[in-house]
Design goal:
The protein has about 280 residues and is an alpha/beta fold. The protein has seven helices and 15 strands. A hairpin with a 5-residue loop joins strand 13 and strand 14. It is globular and about 50 Å long.
Length: about 280
């Protein structure tokens, strides 16, 4: 049986990066060695989720947070999807996710493609484009378990991106995210179940824990869904770690018995990746 285990780390950020590093180490110390194959952190975990402050916390690739993640993956011998952090590249700032292998080597990097610019009447108003630039790459990477796709939060709302990752072999889609108290109750579970069913993949969303003392209130509810659309695990809004097993053999069974991907009418419709 082909199985892998994912540890979803839903955490509360602290006032400084160093305090957050130390808090993460304390939190993951609860995970026994060998209990999970891949660990995953939430979106923008090393600073406040405030558009105007992203440049303040931004680091170049290889900076302190990158080094922390690389060292943590190597020390614990796991694949680590390091959530996302603000990345500084020249004069541009990106919302960037890095993935490291058990030797601490970077094996994937995704810059958020779709910037979260919304203004919901009576709800959330937020404009990432005030300070962030968009990425342009569809991101997949290989592991001994399977090929995985990676995107960030608002990216997941665009079905074309998930399909492009699946067309490149993804069987699991990882989504560091931070849905809020407007979008979370309405769309969080719906989107993760829908993308799982439409693409016959496992979907994994990890969010920050909810902190009412800061300006942006995360919905939390880190989630894992199966290719059949089942919710395999879902946390509440509080901090913690959840370990979920993915049965990759079952994914193959679902695709064989309900062959959606091979039944597509690509003679009539298709999703093409347009190079930037």
């Amino acid at each position: 049986m082909a199985q892998m285990r994912i540890a979803s780390i839903q955490l509360l950020g602290k006032a400084t990066k160093q305090e957050t590093y130390e808090h993460i180490l304390s939190l993951v110390s609860r995970i026994p060695d060998g209990a999970a194959d891949l660990w995953m952190l939430p979106e923008m975990w090393n600073g406040p989720y405030e558009a105007k402050r992203f440049p303040e916390f931004a680091e170049p690739e290889g900076g302190p947070s990158w080094q922390f993640l690389s060292a943590l993956a190597k020390e614990r011998g796991v694949y680590l999807c390091g959530g996302s952090i603000a990345e500084l590249d020249g004069e541009r700032v990106y919302n960037t996710a890095y993935v490291f292998d058990p030797e601490g080597h970077q094996v994937a990097k995704h810059r958020k493609m779709h910037l979260f610019d919304i203004d919901v009447t009576g709800g959330q108003r937020f404009f990432e484009s005030d300070t962030l630039s968009p990425g342009n790459d569809v991101t997949v990477f290989d592991t001994p378990f399977c090929t995985m796709g990676l995107c960030i939060c608002y990216d997941f709302r665009f079905p074309e991106l998930s399909r492009l990752m699946v067309d490149q072999g993804a069987k699991v889609i990882l989504v560091p995210a931070a849905f809020n108290m407007t979008t979370g109750p309405a769309h969080w579970e719906l989107l993760f179940r829908s993308r799982a069913v439409d693409n016959q993949v496992y979907t994994v969303g990890v969010a920050p824990a909810r902190d009412l003392a800061v300006s942006y209130h995360s919905w939390g509810h880190s989630i894992v869904c199966s290719p059949w659309g089942e919710v395999l695990s879902e946390m509440d809004e509080t901090e913690g770690v959840a370990i979920t097993s993915l049965d990759l053999d079952r994914l193959g069974t679902v695709r064989r018995e309900l062959p959606l991907l091979s039944h597509r009418r690509t003679d009539i419709y298709r999703v093409d990746r347009t190079e930037p």
